[in-house]
Each structure stands twice: as C-alpha cells, then as structure tokens.
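Discussion board: Methods & Data

I've been asked by a reviewer to show the raw model output for two of the constructs in my manuscript, not just the figures. I'm not sure how much to include, so I'm pasting the format here to get opinions. Each protein appears as its amino acid sequence followed by a line of discrete structure tokens. Is this the kind of thing reviewers expect to see in a supplement, or should I convert it first? Here is construct A:
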Amino acid sequence: MKAISQELEVIDAPTPEPGEGEKLMKVAAAGVNRGDILQNQGHYPPPKGITSILGLEAAGYVDDEPAIALLAGGGYAEYVAVPEGQLMPVPKGLTMPEAATIAEVTCTVWSNVFMLAGLQKGQRILIHGGAGGIGTCAIQLAKHFDAEVAVTAGSQRKLDHCKELGADILINYKEQDFAEELKNSCDVILDIIGAKYLDQNVRALAYDGHQVTIGMQGGVKGELNIGRLLSKRGSISATALRARDTEDKARIVASTVEHVWPMIEAGEFTTQVSTVLPLEEAAEAHRLIKDGEITGKIALLV
C-alpha cells in the first residue's frame, strides 16, 4: 500500500494485518495534527509496537461501512488496523475529509475539558490557540454547554474566527497579557503551550481552578509558584491521548460519541476543515500548520 513515512516521504508499505480485537480500515481521508509534526521532528515518537507511519486519525470503510478511527499512528496510508473500541460511526451529513478530522480533537477536548476538568455551565474557560483544530473544537463544545469562553490567538483574523464560533473574550497574546486580563477568573484552562505559559496560567486561574496541559509548544521546563497555586486551591494536570491503553481510549471514544456526536448531527458543531490536500502533499500540510497560515484543520485525501 501507499503510505507517508515519518520523514514525510511517499513509500510502499505492507498492508497491515489486523490483530486480535482489531479491524482493517480502507482509508478515505486522514486528519493532520500537530502531533504528526512533532513526530516528524523527532519529538513525539510512536508508542512501542506502533507503526512509524504518521496519522492519528482517519475516516474510511470497515467491512464496507463508513467509520472514523482514533489512532496511535498509521492514518497517512491506504489501509490501517484499528482497535475496535477506537472506531466511531460517521455522523450524518459529514464528508470523508470532514469525518477524518474530528476524532483527535473531539476526544481530546471532551476527555480533558469535561471528563477531567469538569467544566460546568456558567464557568469561564480559557483556551489557548483558539483558532487551531483543538481550539475551534473547544470553543464550540464549551459554548454548547453554556460556559463563558476566553481565547488567545496571534492575529485579529484568527480572533475574528474565534468570535464567529462563539468566543466571548478575545485576547491577542502578541499585544496583551492574558494573565492580567483574566486574573483569578478562569475555572478551566486548556493549555497547548506548556512551560512558557505556566506562571501566567496560574495567575489567571480562579480559586479551585483546573489547568489541563496537552501540549508543549512553549517548552517543557517552567517555574511554578507553588504558593500561588496552593493559595488558589488550584490543580494542574498534564495528559496525552496517544499513549493511553486501548481500554482507556475506548472509554473516551464511547463518551465522546455519546455526548458530541448528537451535536454534530444536529448541526450545532462545524468541523472547521479549511484545507484538503492529496495524501502525497503531506509535507505541504505540515508546512501550512507550522507557518500558522490556517485556522481549523487540514485533511489529506487518500
């Protein structure tokens, strides 16, 4: 089969043989994620026993039925083996490129913002990188559950896009200090930056607030003012979806489908696919994300 290697080269690879509890998916489209870029750069290796072929999500056909897959790797290919608990139905009305871009973001946002941090109606959430794939998903889910949404982004164009999706407070991180703007007010913070924002995030946290860090774009080592965090009774979690075991992923997938899929089918959630490229142009997809030229998600058509 045709596939894309970790080095972003088109290669011939053996068609995977499904193991126990797995199904073979004929891939129609694959979603592009920042985790793929990190793997290409050598910073996010696949878990032991997982293919080095890129791709954390895909949509296609399993036993001739349309399906979506949450993956630990292998989505940038014509076929991929998928644990059965990580397969999801395609919501009515979605194209394959749209379907291919929702597994990673919805499972990440639902598991972290709602299952872990427990965002409630009327609370304030701060979402960093509001115009990206995770951010555009998080805005929509938070607004659906009647939370107040603050976002950071690096341009007015991106902030305008966040506003269109329902964001209430718009902060240009290049011109404003979000910690001062939101001091002591954020019940939940969804953080893709990591070390660079650690101190500011703690200052922005409300009392009993919860920060969930899911990315390291701003580095891996930061200084934590434990006294400030303690005085707020605050908590910080750091999670990764890819390295969880199949049982844990199946639990998250089932909960996401239960709570988010009805929103999608009711037209209350848009997939935010801004660009669709052929599989062979995976390197261009990565360049667009690294250069910050897009909002939302990119899909690769197989």
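Construct B, same format:
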Amino acid sequence: MRAALDAARDAAAAGEVPVGAVIVRAGRIVAQAGNAPRRLTDPTAHAEMRVIREAAATLGRDRLEDCDLWVTLEPCAMCAGAIAHARIARLYYAAPDPKGGAVEHGPRLFAQPTCHHRPEIYSGIGESQAAGMLRDFFAGRR
C-alpha cells in the first residue's frame, strides 16, 4: 500500500485527485499509477484503469488472474468493472468511498449476479493516510 500512497501523493502534486494504485504479481510490483484524468484529458484515466492497462501491457495478456490490485480509494463502478474483466485475484483498498464507490457502496458490483469474476476484497489498509490525503486535497480546493 505504501507504493500506492506514493502514487497518490504524486497525483496530488500534479493537481489530480490523490488516488494511487499498484498491481503486484508474485510479491513484485508490476505496475504503478496515479489518477491523471485532467493531465491526460481522459475521463477514464483513474489510477486503477491506468495500472491495469500498464500491467496488461507489461505482462502481455488481458487476464491478470495471478495479480493483486492495491488502491488508495474504493473503486468506482468503471474501475470495479475493469477489475472483474481483468480477473484480478485480490483487491486491497484503503479508504471507503460512500459517494462514488462501487465495491462496498453504491452498486456493489461484485455482489451482482451478472458479475463474472469476484476478487477477494480487503479494505481499510492504510485508510487513515489515504483519507487524510483526500481530505487535505479537497480542503485546499474549497
């Protein structure tokens, strides 16, 4: 989670919402990314989407069934869908997102009968650091 938090800090420094993600395979980081929708002028450039794309390209395959995703914020519906399609084995996330999350909040995508793959889910790891970063970022914007 430390590497994901670092990516979130980098995103915040670039003026993006501080969310970071890493994909780990066999104990090694395969890909790392932070949010970049504004910088890339791409509404799909969430940290999770970017890190999944990078890991798939690095490993040369679209299925990441032997990989774990570590992210600093509960994934939204778009990112949860990509996690399911990529067949990520385990999802670790830090802070919950009652407004935009789609794992334990909102549509609870992985609990839907139409979801073809459900990763193991672990939440709350690094929650205070991630939530603090988000609070500070948005307080500075108001």
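Answer (T.O., handling editor elsewhere):
This is acceptable in a supplement if you add a one-line summary per construct. For B, something like: The CA atoms of residues 98 and 105 lie 6 Å apart.
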